Automatic annotation (TrEMBL), chains A, B:
<dbReference type="InterPro" id="IPR022383">
    <property type="entry name" value="Lactate/malate_DH_C"/>
</dbReference>
<dbReference type="InterPro" id="IPR010945">
    <property type="entry name" value="Malate_DH_type2"/>
</dbReference>
<dbReference type="Pfam" id="PF02866">
    <property type="entry name" value="Ldh_1_C"/>
</dbReference>
<feature type="domain" description="Lactate/malate dehydrogenase C-terminal">
    <location>
        <begin position="250"/>
        <end position="420"/>
    </location>
</feature>
<keyword id="KW-0809">Transit peptide</keyword>
<dbReference type="InterPro" id="IPR011273">
    <property type="entry name" value="Malate_DH_NADP-dep_pln"/>
</dbReference>
<comment type="subunit">
    <text>Homodimer.</text>
</comment>
<keyword id="KW-0521">NADP</keyword>
<feature type="domain" description="Lactate/malate dehydrogenase N-terminal">
    <location>
        <begin position="100"/>
        <end position="247"/>
    </location>
</feature>
<keyword id="KW-0150">Chloroplast</keyword>
<dbReference type="InterPro" id="IPR001236">
    <property type="entry name" value="Lactate/malate_DH_N"/>
</dbReference>
<protein>
    <recommendedName>
        <fullName>Malate dehydrogenase [NADP], chloroplastic</fullName>
        <ecNumber>1.1.1.82</ecNumber>
    </recommendedName>
</protein>
<dbReference type="GO" id="GO:0046554">
    <property type="term" value="F:L-malate dehydrogenase (NADP+) activity"/>
</dbReference>
<dbReference type="InterPro" id="IPR015955">
    <property type="entry name" value="Lactate_DH/Glyco_Ohase_4_C"/>
</dbReference>
<comment type="similarity">
    <text>Belongs to the LDH/MDH superfamily. MDH type 2 family.</text>
</comment>
<keyword id="KW-1015">Disulfide bond</keyword>
<dbReference type="InterPro" id="IPR001252">
    <property type="entry name" value="Malate_DH_AS"/>
</dbReference>
Length: 441, 441
């Protein structure tokens, strides 16, 4: 990257040109270690709001405003600025091609767990070299350097590139995974509508950036809250990336639900399978004990206390984060990072026969009668190719239907609140209840 | 464990009896989930100081004071209170025997990274089921519950037991690994002598506890500072465990030294080998660029700037933690945890041909002429059986000899400061300089 200045990719069609431009990075010599970093401190001048006018199912490519002289860059860090040919060396010649993993909120605590898992090879395997592209804010840029230093000092053989930056148009370049963790916390007195708007802005911009510069088959996992609606905003702003590729993380809810059923049934958690979280990552979410199984049997056959299932189980799952904050004084960064790893592994490792996993995905074409054009957590299976299919053989009863309808209604309401960010016109926000999960802010 | 009360193991010879007593744990039923925990809040009444009178090389078994009615216990947590027969199930019958890993300072940030690595199977392998025994203080017991909750919610298949407690005599029971991370930070105005004393007390007690209840071949890695002298105190108080089994962690220093040499030479860090840290984990430590290699060549042949090697390299390694605190605002918990994993792996995986690793170990019988009866970081190789041997083919020059002598003198001075804790009589403390590494407190 050196002293070359980049102009912003003006639209998605400039991707090729942008790529050519960026290729100069590959010749970076090792003598410029650290120095490159300074240049990325310059402010972004790109306008953050775009006019999008489109219908729900035919989203046009966003009209990007050219950056005037934007000089902010994502830059390689320290020892990760080196170039090398993995195919030229005995130890690395059998490795797969380098994979680009972009992470937003990279200076936060969840990332502080996640990045080291990614770099160690625990997630994508021992022959998968990794490039980590870390997105922060101007405020967190120093902290990002600290994270990069700790990654250097960890000597992970598979970690071959680390870049840090504050501009998603640069950090997301050629990303094959985008793990969108960063979001603004709710300020004092802020309503949920305000939170939807402030975070929606971020995810609209990041969607546009992904659309412009990421791999055409990038897998996006949205963790920052409200994650379902953020994922919806993101996919709406990235019309050139399959909507199917966007996920909202409900895996921690699934893991917690399995653990609570195991505790109640007196079995180890590996005996609980087929756990679906339906709907929103909020207090309207539905941990599904009708379809879940314990030792291969329906939960209701194993746990006879159906009153507990109907009246206490869901709350136990949802209060977990709040209880943790009380006890530990911090939010669940470590187990959230584990659940992101689980979500990634579920897409790259074939799902065990007869089982499934939950993830918030786009509802178009779903077989459950859930409203289309939402991001809704549903049961999925994967062949391990990065893709997934919705599970067909699930059953419903009135109780389950009614609760799914409630979380569906909430997501429809959230969608109305962010119409200005999804290209559907003027937002109308009538959300009254606070459905943020305890311990999440 | 249930309602049974334990008396303290009076000496190492009561171990068998103690084991029999503890065996009642194995029949814990799953219905007492969570409830057991409350009982561990009762105070410890055991006296903390022991009179030890012995010479350096003939340490007597410590005279333990029987606990009067001590009711504090380490207790299983939640879903980890279940019993199961791993040999009875298809998925687990080929697994190794459960290994007990005890961790002190378990509610701290280093542990928060380390425990999840241990539980994931990243360290000891995918067929090694693990029991984590977490040692905290009364103050941190709630936080320990939080850690245990996050471990539950992570659904690690290999993690089969989690116990939490505040009494090392219970938490270290049958431990095959003891990772001693917890230590008191230096208070305002506290001299290094004061720190040596306050932490020495902790490690004397933990040594006695290991001696009384841990596996006879437990591997102990001391991380809490001042770690070399803490490790010495610990091994002196555990005469029935081979002194060879005690390590002081200098692996993060080794990793940082490799990274700094790689940066200077413009090579990736995997090209740096044979890196020794000699001596104390303090500013007198000696990162050895005479014996280290880059791409198989002596460092001095690759890095021609010998002035940099002699005058800047060591400081760069040592200042790393301080720089990190400046940038990131926190200490290096993540990379410290990675280095603990590296240290463990170095003992259970054969050392690559021609290479070695650094660890602070007991000096008796060392071939380098270093004073005996210290814990001193030196170059080691392992066959992967948990044991190690000191590397013989290292070279010395005047510069290296002189610096090794300085760190050796420091460790001898530290040892004089803790004579009252190692059974060598009355302490005499004449340490003037503050040699704590930046960013470590």
């Amino acid at each position: 990257m050196g002293v070359a200045e980049l102009s912003s990719p003006a639209t998605a069609s400039t991707k090729t040109a942008s790529r050519l431009h960026y290729s100069s990075q590959l010749s970076l010599s090792s003598t410029r270690l650290y120095n490159n970093l300074r240049r990325s401190l310059r402010p972004i001048s790109r306008a953050r709001h775009f006019n999008i006018s489109c219908s729900v199912n035919q989203v046009q490519a966003p009209v990007a405003v050219p950056r005037e002289e934007s000089k902010s860059k994502s830059d390689c860090y320290g020892v990760f600025c080196l170039t090398y040919d993995l195919k030229a060396e005995d130890e690395t010649k059998s490795w797969k091609k380098l994979v680009n993993v972009a992470v937003s909120g990279a200076a936060g605590m969840i990332s502080n767990h996640l990045l080291f898992k990614l770099a160690s090879g625990e997630v994508l395997g021992p022959d998968q070299p990794i490039a980590l592209k870390l997105l922060g804010s101007e405020r967190s840029l120093q902290a990002l350097e600290g994270v990069a230093m700790e990654l250097e000092d960890s000597l992970f053989p598979l970690l071959r590139e680390v870049k840090i930056g504050i501009d998603p148009y640069e950090v997301f370049e050629d990303a094959e995974w985008a793990l969108l963790i960063g979001a603004k916390p709710r300020g004092p007195g802020m309503e949920r509508a305000g939170l939807l708007d402030i975070n929606g802005q971020i995810f609209a911009e990041q969607g546009k950036a992904l659309n412009a510069v990421a791999s055409r088959n990038v897998k996006v996992i949205v963790v920052g809250n409200p994650c379902n609606t953020n994922a919806l905003i993101c996919l709406k702003n990235a019309p050139n990336i399959p909507a199917k590729n966007f996920h909202a993380l409900t895996r921690l809810d699934e893991n917690r639900a399995k653990c609570q059923l195991a505790l109640k049934a007196g079995v180890f958690y590996d005996k609980v399978s087929n756990m679906t979280i339906w709907g929103n990552h909020s207090t309207t979410q539905v941990p599904d004990f009708l379809n879940a199984r314990i030792n291969g049997l329906p939960v209701k056959e194993v746990i006879k206390d159906h009153k507990w299932l109907e009246e206490e189980f869901t709350e136990k799952v949802q209060k977990r984060g709040g209880v943790l904050i009380q006890k530990w004084g911090r939010s669940s960064a470590a187990s959230t990072a584990v659940s992101i790893v689980d979500a990634m592994k579920s897409l790259v490792i074939p799902t065990p026969e007869g089982d499934w996993f939950s993830t918030g995905v786009y509802t178009n074409g779903n077989p459950y009668g859930i409203a289309e054009d939402l991001v809704f957590s549903m049961p999925c299976r994967s062949k391990g190719d990065g893709d997934y299919e919705l599970v067909k053989d699930v059953i419903f009863d009135d109780y389950l239907r009614k609760r799914i309808a409630k979380t569906e209604a909430e997501l429809l309401a959230e969608k109305r609140c962010v119409a200005h960010l999804t290209g559907e016109g003027i937002a109308y926000c009538d959300i009254k209840e606070d459905t943020m999960l305890p311990g999440e802010m």
